[in-house]
Amino acid sequence: SSRRGGKRHLVSGAAPCVAPYMSSWRRGRAPTGRGRGRQRQPPAVDVEQLMRERQAEVQAALAGLSGCPGRPAAAADEEESEAEEAKEVEEEEDHRKEVDSDEEERVSEQVAAPDATRSAAEAATAAAEQLRLVQLAEEQERRADTAWRELKQTQRRREEEAEWERWEAEQEKRKHETRQRQLEAAARRREAEALMARSTAETAASSCATAAAARDDD
């Protein structure tokens, strides 16, 4: 028999003197089912060793009681009840440890989550900064290329303007030279005309003098 909750129960198929020494493992114990959806097996117990120890204690008690089954059975029931209580205490302790382990795991996950979020944010910030630097370098390159093209255009325009100014200067010089030559030619022409007029006048005067002298001779 076994004792639970103050009641005694006979174990089927066992003699009265043997039943008290049968371990509760013969009756079986369902898993507690505690823990987050997981079923936990009770801790391993060396049942045979426990039975041998109990049988030795019972035999020692029987040796002094001249075959009375009541007292050793009661002692065995008390020992079995104590063993079951110890086993339940051990199971409760295991369950508490499991709950503590689950809580530690949950806290660890909660602590790791901000770290992962912070790492992702730092990576995103670094990527954005890298993109900004690349875009800045591209913009500076575009500005430098634009400035170079504008400089070349300015130089080309200045060269064209200088060339145009040189051409205009040459044209003006040619005009001046032409005008100078024209003036010189006009001066020479006027000088020749004056010389011709003077020669003509001298010739006419000489002719008049000759004619006058001839009249005088007559």
Automatic annotation (TrEMBL):
Point to the regions of Low complexity compositional bias.
Answer: 112-124, 194-218
Biased-composition ranges, Basic and acidic residues, are 140-193
Q: Where is the composition biased (Acidic residues)?
A: 76-93
Segments for region (Disordered): 1-44, 61-124, 140-218
- What sections of the sequence does the record tag as coiled-coil? none
Q: Where is the composition biased (Basic residues)?
A: 1-10
Q: What's this protein's name?
A: Uncharacterized protein
Organism from which the protein derives:
Haptolina brevifila
